[in-house]
Structures are given as C-alpha cells and as structure tokens.
Specification:
The protein is mainly alpha-helical. It has 2 domains: 141 residues, no CATH class; 70 residues, no CATH class. It contains 12 helices and 3 strands. Strands 1-2-3 form a 3-stranded antiparallel sheet. The chain is globular. About 2% of the residues have low confidence.
C-alpha cells in the first residue's frame, strides 16, 4: 500500500485535476496502511495507534522546523561562508548542537528580518527550555487540529464528498508522518522481537522525562549532553 502511495505521490507529476485525485488516493492508502500496522502491532484498534503516534508529533515537528531554520539561514551562507555550512549540515545530516553554538552566525546570514526572527526562535529553543516548552505547546495544538482536519478529509474521500485540493494538500505532510512513524515502530518491533506497544511505551516515558526536565528549566541540549549523546538529525 505504501508503495502504491509512493507512486501516486510522485513529485515529478504535473499539477492538475488528475494529481488531486492521486493525492486523495495517497491519503486513502496511508489510512489503510496505518490501520494494518495497528493490527500487526496488536494494538486495541487503529484509533489507539493514531493517538499514540500523535504524541510524537510536537517533537518531530520541532526537529523539522529547526532544520528548516538552519536551511533558511544557510541559503545565504553557501557562497559567503561555506565553512559554516559544512560545520552544521553535511549532505542530509544536521548537527543541531553546532547550530546552537553558532546561532548568531547563522542568523547573520538570514536573507531578511522575517526569516531572522522566525529562525531565531527555533534555534534558541535548542538550548533554552522555556522557549521550547512554548513551541511544543503550540505544536501539540497544531497536531490536534491537523488530526481533526485529516479525519474530515478522510471522511470526504470515503463518503464521496471530494475535499478541495487545498484541504488535501494541507494534511499531506501530517498523513505521511503518521503512517511512516507507525511503519518505523512496526519495523523496530519486527527486528527487535519486542511488542510494538512496549516500544510506544518506552518512547512515551522518554518524552515525559524530557518534558519534566524542561519544566524544571533543563534545556533539551543539556539533557542530550547528560545522556552523552550528540544532537544530530537527518532528513527522512
């Protein structure tokens, strides 16, 4: 199903009515794959998996926005400061700790004031707990709204009330996140021999521990250092 979704979700296709239909098909295939993964994982139902995956959304969206902020700043640094670009981003891997260390340099390369203000908040949140707490709260609300909108779009597709191209496009990234995150848990369960629910519970406990530390003012970067890890992210 995900293979079929990938064929329909082809970025090289020209936009038009047929692409809109394909995107609706992609959403339907994502939903079907998600539901099968819930059955594979022996969860109570697809709704339980949907709710558990939604818990991952805020921090996943945070990482995406940090990487986008780095990209936005580096787009002005590629010719003027290639060493900065190499220090922070190599191929498809981002060194978030280096971005935090060199935040002022990155922001100085922002193309305009709006980009600088937006990127500043995301980059500051790496090493500033209160900023990250605010962002995570905003992203959690965004995730809930996207989940409700995705459900309305899905109902329209299933019941023959085609949603608009704009509505379909607005939930596509969220739909991809949901199904591929579920697939990741299923693959981890298969390779580790552990129940999918245990993996979901383990990640939940880590998120709760991070949230408690953030509430005490311990930045995410400080938590990474305490665990002996390096803040590195790759593009999926």
């Amino acid at each position: 199903m995900l293979g079929e979704a990938g064929q329909a979700d082809d970025p090289w296709k020209h936009p038009g009515p047929s692409q809109t239909i394909d995107q609706r098909t992609v959403l339907a295939l994502h939903d079907a794959a998600h539901d099968h993964l819930a059955t594979y994982g022996r969860l109570r139902d697809a709704g339980e998996l949907k709710d558990r995956i939604l818990e991952d959304w805020p921090m996943s969206a945070w990482r995406t926005n940090v990487m986008r902020s780095i990209d936005a700043c580096l787009s002005g640094a590629q010719t003027g400061d290639p060493a900065l670009a190499r220090a922070i981003r190599q191929d498809r891997t981002y060194r978030i700790d280096a971005a935090s260390d060199r935040r002022d340099e990155l922001l100085n390369h922002a193309s305009d004031g709006q980009v600088q203000r937006t990127a500043s908040r995301w980059l500051r949140s790496i090493d500033h707990a209160p900023t990250l707490v605010d962002l995570v709260s905003e992203l959690a609300g965004e995730g809930e709204l996207l989940a409700k909108r995705a459900q309305r779009v899905r109902n329209g597709v299933v019941h023959g009330t085609p949603p608009s191209p704009e509505a379909v496009a607005s939930v596509m990234d969220f739909s991809r996140f949901r199904v591929f995150r579920a697939l990741w848990y299923a693959m981890e369960a298969a390779t580790s021999g552990r129940p999918m629910r245990d993996l979901l519970d383990e990640d939940r406990q880590q998120r709760l521990a991070e949230a408690r530390a953030l509430a005490r003012g311990v930045s995410l970067r400080a938590q990474w250092r305490a665990r002996g890890g390096e803040a590195v992210d790759g593009v999926s």
